[in-house]
Amino acid sequence: MLPTRHALVAASLILTGAAGPALAQASLYIPLDDARLPLLEHLIARGDVADPTPMVRPFRLADAVRVLAAADTAPETSSGRLIRELRTGFTEDTARARWQVHARVGADAYTQKRKDLLHQGGEGTANPYADVALRAVFGPAVLATRAALEPRLIGDPDWPNQAQDNLTGRLPEGYLSLQFKYGNVTYGQLERNWGPVGYWAIPISNYSYQRQGLALTLGTEDLRLDAIASDLQSESDSLGQTINRYLIVHRLDARLSRGLRLALWESIIIAGPGRILETPFANPVSPTVIANTFGIQDLKSNVIIGADVHLRLNRRTTLQAQLALDDFLFNTRDQGRDRWALTVTGSGSLGRALGWRALYTQASSLAFRTSIPEENFVDAGIGIGRNFSDMDLLSVSATIPSRWGVLFTPDVTIQRQGEGRITDPYPTKNGNGVLVYPAWFVGTVERTYRLGLGVSGRFFGLDVTGSGGFHHVVNDANRPGVSTDRFVGTVRVIASWQRSGRLE
Questions:
Q1: Whole domain around residue 30: which residue ranges?
Q2: Which has the minimum average pLDDT: 66-80, 424-438, 481-495?
Q3: Is 130 within 8 Å of 104 (Cβ atoms)?
């Protein structure tokens, strides 16, 4: 019998091939590190452009062009000019068989190496950066790979390969996508963020660097099913056994009215000696929490269930919320702790050209970890969605597009971080069988007050992205009474060269 994950690939290819006339012209995905993407997100937040896939990123170039074309009605306004520029920049060749080579070279400068600027990690310096992307489209099929040399990763506490000490590289994207009218099947690697725009999502995000897997999307704008199945790095237990680990995420999204969307999702870790990606979990139309956890058989897994809400109050105001629940104890309140995480955001227009966004997020002290360490929501010790628990954050920002093609994003942010960490051992119960552990904010709470500015866009042919700010930190590193002021920032400047053509 084929391993389950191979069978899933084969079934997906058969499904796609059976689509026949439903096969569509394929389109590349917009990488989440594209310097122009924040400009498009600014237009979406303002309500000038429809969101092609609410709370699911990335989306395809074709989806971006479609919503930009529908909104291209007022070319003389500030937003209208930006819409037209982005529409031109994102438009693909229409040839059914085509290729593209895209080479980029530039530099990174930063005060710390961890990408989360509100959590210190790694020494600051400057390094070169280079990547080369090879992409091709053959009718309904997309092949894309991008290899990067990125010395900045050496010393980043969230980079899995800590043995490298000279030069390091990674694969930001490498995937095969077969696309048809009512969905697509994608195998390989690309960065994803399933949640409100503006922060790392709970079920899966682009915080961690590697995420290979098989992804399936089926449906229409009214009803959409997304599923991902992925290997995780194996671990060893106390007996020296190799623990195989897998991640599965299912998400069902429905448009309930013109302005309201609701999605139900589950994120699952299965782990154990000799475990494979078992069909009851990989089945995208089988709710694991019902069929397995509380249903006919407990197949030993850790499941987070969640809900996403996308509400368009009017043309200029949007609310988004994501709630995740790992454990909520009904009858044994003294024997455990609830585990949860949530994010709530609001966004809209500010005057004729500006935008605004407000965000609040929190994660409980034991979020993303369990009493069975190999079932924690981490891969190589790094969070799959969130990398920090026992915290909350409130941020308010504005988005200001400039005539030079650059978006400026000033922000005011407050973060509170307790001593609980996603990789800490799970606390044990006392002699009376009671878990004595705070549900939120363990020990001394670090408080960070930030006044910052982000920048993103294309300036004189150069891709520029960066963020910097002044941080006032109270109880720095959870040390009582220790306060500090620091500037924290990162910037990347890249020049690019691109060639493309058609294939006979």
A1: 4-502
A2: 424-438
A3: yes
